[in-house]
Specification:
mainly alpha, Four Helix Bundle (Hemerythrin (Met), subunit A), 5 helices, about 0% strand
Length: about 120
Protein backbone atom coordinates (compact mmCIF):
# COMPACT_ATOMS: atom_id res chain seq x y z
CA UNK A 1 0.00 0.00 0.00
CA UNK A 2 1.40 3.36 -1.01
CA UNK A 3 -0.20 5.28 1.88
CA UNK A 4 -0.90 4.12 5.41
CA UNK A 5 -4.69 4.36 5.54
CA UNK A 6 -4.81 4.31 9.36
CA UNK A 7 -2.46 7.29 9.41
CA UNK A 8 -4.78 9.16 7.03
CA UNK A 9 -7.80 8.33 9.19
CA UNK A 10 -6.02 9.69 12.28
CA UNK A 11 -4.95 12.84 10.45
CA UNK A 12 -8.47 13.35 9.17
CA UNK A 13 -9.87 13.04 12.70
CA UNK A 14 -7.32 15.50 14.09
CA UNK A 15 -7.46 18.10 11.32
CA UNK A 16 -11.15 17.76 10.46
CA UNK A 17 -12.07 20.32 7.79
CA UNK A 18 -8.41 21.29 7.22
CA UNK A 19 -7.47 17.74 6.19
CA UNK A 20 -8.43 18.17 2.52
CA UNK A 21 -6.36 21.33 2.29
CA UNK A 22 -3.35 19.54 3.77
CA UNK A 23 -3.60 16.74 1.22
CA UNK A 24 -4.09 19.10 -1.71
CA UNK A 25 -1.10 21.16 -0.56
CA UNK A 26 1.00 18.01 -0.25
CA UNK A 27 0.05 16.90 -3.76
CA UNK A 28 0.93 20.21 -5.40
CA UNK A 29 4.03 20.94 -3.31
CA UNK A 30 5.47 17.46 -3.57
CA UNK A 31 5.12 17.44 -7.36
CA UNK A 32 7.12 20.66 -7.56
CA UNK A 33 9.74 19.34 -5.13
CA UNK A 34 10.08 16.02 -6.94
CA UNK A 35 10.52 17.79 -10.28
CA UNK A 36 13.12 20.07 -8.71
CA UNK A 37 14.98 17.17 -7.08
CA UNK A 38 15.13 15.27 -10.36
CA UNK A 39 16.29 18.37 -12.23
CA UNK A 40 19.02 18.86 -9.61
CA UNK A 41 20.18 15.28 -10.05
CA UNK A 42 20.32 15.81 -13.82
CA UNK A 43 22.45 18.93 -13.40
CA UNK A 44 24.65 17.53 -10.59
CA UNK A 45 23.37 20.03 -8.00
CA UNK A 46 23.81 17.47 -5.24
CA UNK A 47 23.20 19.66 -2.19
CA UNK A 48 20.04 21.18 -3.62
CA UNK A 49 18.79 17.69 -4.57
CA UNK A 50 19.55 16.48 -1.03
CA UNK A 51 17.49 19.31 0.46
CA UNK A 52 14.55 18.56 -1.83
CA UNK A 53 14.64 14.87 -0.94
CA UNK A 54 14.85 15.81 2.74
CA UNK A 55 11.67 17.89 2.43
CA UNK A 56 9.92 15.16 0.45
CA UNK A 57 10.93 12.56 3.03
CA UNK A 58 9.40 14.54 5.89
CA UNK A 59 6.22 15.70 4.22
CA UNK A 60 5.57 12.22 2.82
CA UNK A 61 6.06 10.61 6.22
CA UNK A 62 3.67 13.16 7.72
CA UNK A 63 0.84 12.02 5.46
CA UNK A 64 1.63 8.32 5.72
CA UNK A 65 3.36 7.78 2.36
CA UNK A 66 5.88 5.46 3.95
CA UNK A 67 7.41 3.81 0.85
CA UNK A 68 7.87 7.09 -1.00
CA UNK A 69 9.35 8.64 2.13
CA UNK A 70 11.79 5.73 2.44
CA UNK A 71 12.98 6.16 -1.16
CA UNK A 72 13.52 9.88 -0.53
CA UNK A 73 15.33 9.10 2.71
CA UNK A 74 17.65 6.70 0.88
CA UNK A 75 18.46 9.28 -1.79
CA UNK A 76 19.00 11.96 0.85
CA UNK A 77 21.38 9.61 2.68
CA UNK A 78 23.33 8.85 -0.49
CA UNK A 79 23.72 12.53 -1.29
CA UNK A 80 24.60 13.44 2.30
CA UNK A 81 27.37 10.84 2.23
CA UNK A 82 28.87 12.09 -1.00
CA UNK A 83 27.43 9.45 -3.27
CA UNK A 84 25.93 10.68 -6.51
CA UNK A 85 22.98 8.48 -7.42
CA UNK A 86 22.37 7.70 -11.07
CA UNK A 87 19.06 9.19 -12.05
CA UNK A 88 18.32 6.26 -14.32
CA UNK A 89 18.35 3.92 -11.33
CA UNK A 90 15.76 5.89 -9.35
CA UNK A 91 13.61 8.06 -11.58
CA UNK A 92 11.05 5.49 -12.74
CA UNK A 93 10.66 4.07 -9.23
CA UNK A 94 10.21 7.55 -7.75
CA UNK A 95 7.64 8.51 -10.36
CA UNK A 96 5.73 5.24 -10.05
CA UNK A 97 5.60 5.43 -6.27
CA UNK A 98 4.66 9.12 -6.35
CA UNK A 99 1.78 8.47 -8.76
CA UNK A 100 0.59 5.66 -6.50
CA UNK A 101 0.65 7.97 -3.48
CA UNK A 102 -1.27 10.71 -5.27
CA UNK A 103 -3.87 8.23 -6.51
CA UNK A 104 -4.31 6.79 -3.01
CA UNK A 105 -4.66 10.27 -1.49
CA UNK A 106 -7.23 11.36 -4.06
CA UNK A 107 -9.16 8.12 -3.58
CA UNK A 108 -9.16 8.66 0.18
CA UNK A 109 -10.43 12.23 -0.22
CA UNK A 110 -13.26 11.15 -2.50
CA UNK A 111 -14.13 8.06 -0.48
CA UNK A 112 -13.06 5.73 -3.28
CA UNK A 113 -10.20 4.08 -1.41
CA UNK A 114 -10.30 0.33 -1.74
CA UNK A 115 -10.06 -0.59 1.94
Amino acid sequence: MSVNRNHLIELNEILEEEFGSLIETYISDSRVRLNQALACLRSAEWEHARKEFHCLKGSSANIGAESFSAICQHLEWLLKNGECPKLSEYESNLEREYRSVVEALKDFLTGNDKT
